[in-house]
Amino acid sequence: MTTDSPGSHPDAEPTALLAPSADASASVGSASTVGGPRAEIGVIGGSGLYDFLDDYDTVEVDTPFGRPSDPLVIGEVEGRSVAFVARHGKGHRFPPHRVNYRANLWALRAVGVRQVLAPCAVGSLRPEQGPGTVVVPDQVVDRTWGREHTVYDVEGPVVHVGFADPYCPNGRQVAVDAARLAGFEVEPEGTLVVVNGPRFSSRAESVWHQQAGWSIVGMTAMPEAALARELAMCFTTIALVTDADAGVEGGEAVTHEEVLRVFGTNVERLKSVLRDAIGQLPAHEADDDATCPCRRALDGLELPFPLP
Ligand SMILES: [Zn+2]
């Protein structure tokens, strides 16, 4: 890991964290053994959200899965140390199916992050939840394929984490309160179906998702949430509805342009939601003493390699 002055992007080689190995006895490096800024809260978001960190360090982290989408940006928000990673990288260059979700989550954990807020744009499957609504989902359905869905992709002790309740109860409550405070229409629960993209849904797919009882559709929330659970981190999706999905009653077919337009008009308020939520998240807890169920996801499990 190397650090640099605020706002610049160093070319220096990152400190390599050794790859998880099929040989469980192999030693694995950890960011905790190297210097550099640390963070307690992570934000995975779009590039439009960068500038809610006024003063920050740019931190290169290498992971067993390669580099995150972008160097981490670490600074202070509401008195809390926050690491930001641009999900799609600079210039929005990684489409949803090519985002290195494993590297993004591993890198956040490696700098100390244990609570993650993950804003994203979604389509609505319900007419009453129109553009500009914030949905804080409590359930997820994964319809993605061909992505790297687990960090435990080695021979050795097999790791099955519980995922019945995919999202952090503390993070969700904080996000709902913060979104209400910012004046958003807020849906405090809902099921997010994640499609592979990058294309949008057909009308028939959209009707099918709607009839299944799901409420919003996105392309990035999985395997992000599952990987956070595998790394015993609290994870909260904050979904901004940018459009009515194709099959929704009276819905125009969605375009990328419209998604960007609606996201753009809401980005300042979304930043204030994030700032407020960051300030309200529970105090950081050490791994051994953590009380949130997300943090206990690996209790009693033998891991094939140590986590950073
Ligand atoms: Zn939690």
What keywords describe this structure?
single chain, 308 residues, alpha/beta, Rossmann fold, 12-stranded mixed beta sheet, 22% helix, 20% strand, disordered N terminus, binds zinc ion
List the helices and strands and how they pair.
Elements lengths: L1 E2 L37 E5 L10 E5 L11 E6 L2 E7 L14 H10 L4 E10 L9 E2 L3 E4 L26 H13 L4 E2 L3 E4 L8 H9 L4 E3 L2 H10 L3 E11 L11 H25 L28
Parallel strand pairs: 2-5, 2-6, 6-12, 7-9, 8-10, 10-11
Antiparallel strand pairs: 1-3, 3-4, 4-5, 6-11, 7-12
Helix pairs in contact: 1-4, 2-5
The site of zinc ion has 6 residues, from α2.
Summarize the structure.
This protein has 308 residues and is of the alpha/beta class. Helices cover 22% and strands 20% of the residues.
Number of domains: 1
SSE sequence, one letter per element: EEEEEHEEEHEEHEHEH
Identify the bound ligands: zinc ion
Helicity range: 10-25%
Helix count?
5
Roughly how many Å apart are the termini? 13 Å
Q: Which superfamily, in CATH terms, is the homologous superfamily?
A: Nucleoside phosphorylase domain
The CATH topology name reads Rossmann fold
Q: What is Rg?
A: 19 Å
Morphology call: globular
Structural class based on helices, strands and sheet pairing: alpha/beta
Major beta sheet, specifics?
Answer: 12 strands, mixed
**Total strand segments:** 12
